[in-house]
Design brief:
This protein has about 140 residues and is mostly beta strands. It has 2 helices and 9 strands, in the order H-E-E-E-E-E-E-E-E-H-E. The chain has a 5-stranded mixed sheet. A 4-stranded antiparallel sheet has the order 3-4-5-9, with no helix packed on it. The longest helix is centred in the first third of the chain and has 10 residues. The chain is globular and about 45 Å long.
């Protein structure tokens, strides 16, 4: 406040986010959030529920994280038995030394029941870093 980058202590201005970057940074935090005290990257943690409706697709390319650049897509698949399903594809650099928490927000607010990879929680799955060793591409089916 009251100064500009380069004037005085850098700690006085470094926390200020330029207004042109705010929408971009907000979208990044909505889709990719890194915990500061643990090696966990959350994907889609704050994405709105309607983005997970059948037929919708979320695509993110080259998202920077402190563990490397990550890309992913989440597709809500229509199912014949009326249950919701999502197909998530993730591309990772090697090595990727972080757990991945993939959040899914079903429009009907139901809890997640199963995943082809990782540990299932009510609103997300966690793929441990140990499962990512040697993998640069993941495909996960979630229901």
């Amino acid at each position: 406040p009251g100064n500009y980058p380069g004037e005085g202590s850098p700690y006085a201005w470094s926390a200020v986010i330029n207004s042109t970057l705010q929408p971009t940074l907000g979208l990044r935090w909505l889709l990719c959030y890194e915990e500061h005290d643990r090696d966990v990257v959350h994907l889609q943690k704050a994405a709105p529920q309607h983005w997970f409706s059948p037929g919708e697709v979320i695509r993110v390319r080259n998202c920077p994280t402190r563990f490397g650049t990550i890309s992913w897509s989440t597709e809500a698949v229509k199912s014949s038995d009326r249950s919701a399903r999502w197909k998530v594809e993730v591309t990772l650099p090697q090595p990727y030394n972080s757990d991945l928490a993939i959040h899914i927000h079903p429009p009907d607010r139901s809890t997640l029941r199963s995943a082809s990879l990782g540990e299932v929680h009510p609103d997300h799955i966690v793929v441990a870093a140990q499962l990512l060793v040697g993998k640069s591409h993941l495909e996960v089916e979630i229901s």
